[in-house]
């Protein structure tokens, strides 16, 4: 059993977003392995950077979908993304400069953040996108003068 396993509870029922979340879970598991195995500073930095880069790419994917479909909750959703991105960047800077270590608390925080965000925030986006795609193309109203 991994530190964090994928399960249906984490599905937002939108394939592209689920695929990104599965990759994020892999990267969090890799970071957890680096912390428990006592990887070198370079190895742990590499795991953190991979998580940072993919987290940013994933947020761009979601925000692009939100903009394309005029998602009503884009602002509060993006605030959550920006807050985590800033926390990750700050942590990475402190880790690289030797001011912070890669503790279990940090990895548990990331796991909790991801699961809570998926279950409480991304799920609504998934439902919106599924509904948006299910809508038939708009049919013009028949002319009243016809
Ligand atoms: Fe997400
Ligand atoms: Fe999100």
Small molecules bound: fe (ii) ion
H/E element sequence: HHHH
Helix percent band: over 70%
CATH superfamily of the domain at 40-133: Hemerythrin-like
N→C terminal distance: 67 Å
Low-confidence stretches: none
| Main CATH class of the domain at 40-133 | Mainly Alpha
The SS-based structural class is: mainly alpha
Gyration radius (Cα, Å) is 19 Å
Mean pLDDT: 93
Describe this structure in words.
The protein has 146 residues and is mostly helical. It has a domain at 40-133: Hemerythrin-like (Four Helix Bundle (Hemerythrin (Met), subunit A), Up-down Bundle), CATH 1.20.120.50. It contains 4 helices and no strands. Helix 1 packs antiparallel against helix 2 (41-68), helix 1 (15-36) runs antiparallel to helix 4 and helix 2 (41-68) packs antiparallel against helix 3 (74-96). The longest helix has 31 residues, at 104-134. It is elongated, with a radius of gyration of 19 Å. The model has no long low-confidence stretch (mean pLDDT 93). The chain binds fe (ii) ion (2 copies). The site of one fe (ii) ion has 6 residues, from helix 3 and helix 4. One fe (ii) ion binds at residues 17, 21, 58, 62, 122.
Quick recap:
With 146 residues, the protein is mostly helical.
Key phrases:
146 residues; mainly alpha; elongated; binds fe (ii) ion
In terms of topology, how is this protein built?
Elements (H helix, E strand, L loop, with lengths): L14 H22 L4 H28 L5 H23 L7 H31 L12
Bound molecules: fe (ii) ion (2 copies).
